[in-house]
Specification:
Strands 2-1-3-4-5 form a five-stranded parallel β-sheet, with helices on both faces. Helix 3 (69-79) links the parallel strand 3 and strand 4. The chain has helices spanning 14-24, 43-52, 69-79, 96-102, 114-132; strands at 4-10, 34-40, 57-61, 86-90, 106-109. By secondary structure, the chain is an alpha/beta fold. It contains five helices and five strands, in the order βαβαβαβαβα.
């Protein structure tokens, strides 16, 4: 297994990015790598990091402004070759159908609930690892 996993976190809200970091800790589960974060507050920064490569999972804030994470997810799924899996942060459980529309692999509600978030992130990291073996 790789030594570290790189997780891109997109949100215009620094508090939301902090919630993601705190919920993840050093690693979201014992059987996945230690996580390193790349934080982005704008769509251009997200696209730049994804073009650079090396991102294992994206966490996108569906409540970001002016460009929400759902639209960003749909765009990167169309434009980025071998796009990493996406965990979408949604405002309410009823928005889960929009997460499906955006082609996100997983979604959790805001505010970030640490156990639920860590479980979803660990699952995506496991899937990513299984596909790369």
């Amino acid at each position: 297994m790789q030594a570290t996993a790189t997780v891109l976190v997109y949100s215009d809200n620094s508090g939301t990015r902090e919630q993601v970091r705190l919920a993840t800790g050093r690693r979201p589960a014992p059987d996945v790598p230690v996580v390193e974060f790349v934080e982005c507050a704008t769509l251009p920064a997200v696209l730049k990091e994804l073009e650079r490569g090396g991102i294992d999972v994206c966490v996108l804030d569906g409540e970001s402004s002016p460009v929400g994470g759902m639209g960003v997810c749909r765009q990167i799924k169309d434009e980025i070759f071998a796009c990493p899996p996406v965990l979408l942060l949604i405002g309410r459980p009823q928005d889960a159908w929009l997460a499906t529309w955006s082609r996100a692999e997983a979604a959790v509600t805001l505010p970030v609930e640490p156990v639920e978030f860590a479980s979803a992130l660990a699952s995506l990291l496991r899937q990513k690892h299984a596909l790369s073996v």
